[in-house]
Amino acid sequence: MTTAGSAAHPAAAPDAHSSRRWMMLVLLLLGQFMGLVDVFIVNVAMPSIGTQLHASGASLQLVVGGYTVAYAMLLITGARLGDLYGRRRLYLLGVIVFTLMSVGCAFAPNAIVLVVFRCAQGASAAVMVPQIMSVIQMQFTGKARAQALSAYGAVLSTGAAAGLVLGGVIVNANLFGTSWRPVFLINVPIGLVLVALVPRLLPKDVPSGRRRLDLLGLALAIPAVFLLVLPAVLGRELGWPLWTFVCIAAGAALAVLFVRVERTIAARGGDPLVNFAVLRAAGMSVGLATLVCVQLTYGGFLFVFTLHLQAGLEESALRAGLTYIPMSVTFGLTGFYWRKIPERLHPALAPSGLALSALSYAQIALAMQDGTSGGALMWMGTILNGIGMGLSVSPLLTQSLVNVPMDKAVDASGLLTTIVQLGQVAGVTVYGALYLTLVSHAGVGAPAHGLGAAMTTTTTWILVGAALGVIPGVALARVVLRAVPPRRPKPVAAPAPVASD
How much helix, strand and coil, in percent to the nearest 5, is found in the chain? Predict the structure, then answer.
């Protein structure tokens, strides 16, 4: 039904609404960028943090991984809190707490306090970030939604490398002699802008209350993950005492119990934290396996490569950060424009991207084996890695859900997002421990070729992880091909009849 007002000014109201909606998207993506950048911005600051706070290699792994573990474990719960209490309210709460925890990180007096604030920062990000996709899905439709999701994908694609570049610039600037601390303080002005504008530009939503909090599942999942991660990180430095193996065994037992409890809750018609029934959808399991390989190798590479550039090659934080610019640019552009590739090729993008990433790790391993910065071959490797990651990540998140029923899409998306974060934690833990072990065996003051050998060996194992991901990636491609019906050629119009005399 058309009102008189809309008839008189047919374009005014839609234009005003459209402008407000795109401003709202900017605010949402600012929050996403802030949360994602903080996963990685600390990487370039690690040597400075280690020096000033007398932090060990394991402590630095926890500074990086503590944020991500807390973020991953509370993402699904954060989404449900938004459903229960309102997405705008939870987004704003997450922004406020995240900003305060960033200030706490900046003024942390020692490594233990920094790790605690990083975990709290990750928990607040888990409250903030899930609301972003929910609001986009609710406020955008049709072509506008596709554009909004492309912008969202571009932020996801560039956030990690952008954090590394920003970290290098800020640490190198050494503002007022504060070294690494401003890498956390940059969140404060962004947070203040969001706190001021979110109540004005984000529409108030009515809580639906359709979902429930699975407190029992959460009580099992959090200690299970920490019991697996903490001893894996600390064990190397402590000489693997008995308690580390006891903790790992206890964590594995809790993980098994968690799966059984979640299945029981689902069978009784409850609302489990993780609905494992979504794994029965064709393509979901192989999609998760592929995603694990992508995030495991990428998270491990960023941690190890950054540490090697600064601690191994003694490059400045600025130079280490700038090293990521080619990868950041190619990752972002490929992640944004991958849909421009002909649709018939889309199923092959994820395995092809992983194959390119594996090739890039091979180039970097060869380039750095002599203990130098790697030269042109290293730069080519980082560019290729950006392209490979751009072809892998966004298509994977879409294609893994191709056969998931609509009523299970939220559960499946939550599981995918959690796996993304836990995969990165696993990469930092596994590959970080391998690199630090090889460096310690080389000894203090080891020659350049000894450090180069540590980097090359670690990168070779990263290559193996990426190559293994091609196997489930190909399986996912087959699923997608079966799920998407082939396009029929358009019928050719019959020639017009020729008029007779």
Answer: 80, 0, 20
- For 282-292, what is the mean pLDDT? 92
pTM: predicted TM-score of the whole model, two decimal places: 0.80
Please give the distance of CA 274 from its chain centroid, rounded to a whole number: 19
- pLDDT given for residue 160 in this prediction: 67
What does the angle CA 369 – CA 375 – CA 380 come to, to the nearest 5 degrees? 95
**pLDDT(372) > 90:** no
Q: How far is CA 283 from CA 249, 296, 351, in A?
A: 31, 20, 14
DSSP 388: H
Rounded CA-CA distance 121/129 in Å is 12
| CA quadruple 406, 140, 132, 33: dihedral sign | positive
Angle between helices 349-367 and 448-483 (to 10 degrees): 170
For residue 233, is pLDDT > 90? Answer: no
Q: Please give the Cα distance from 104 to 341 (Å, whole number).
A: 45
What is the SS3 assignment for 74-86? HHHHHHHHHHHHC
Q: Considering only CA atoms, give the Rg of the chain.
A: 24
Residue type, 420: V
The answer to whether 40 and 160 are in contact (CB under 8 A) is yes
CA 57 to chain centre: 23
Looking up tokens 């809750």 gives 265
Q: What are phi and psi of 315, to 5 degrees?
A: -80, 155
Mean pLDDT of 102-126: 94
End-to-end CA distance of the chain: 53
Contacts of residue 365, defined as CB under 8 A and 6 or more positions apart, other chains included, come to 455, 456, 459, 460, 463
Which of 185, 187, 188, 161 minimizes the C-alpha distance to 35? 187
Q: How far apart are CA 294 and CA 389, in angstroms?
A: 8
**What distance in Å separates the CA atoms of residue 148 and residue 132, rounded to the nearest whole number?**
11
More confident residue, 414 or 500: 414
In whole angstroms, give the CA distance from residue 263 to residue 274: 9
Q: How many CB atoms lie within 10 A of CB 361?
A: 27
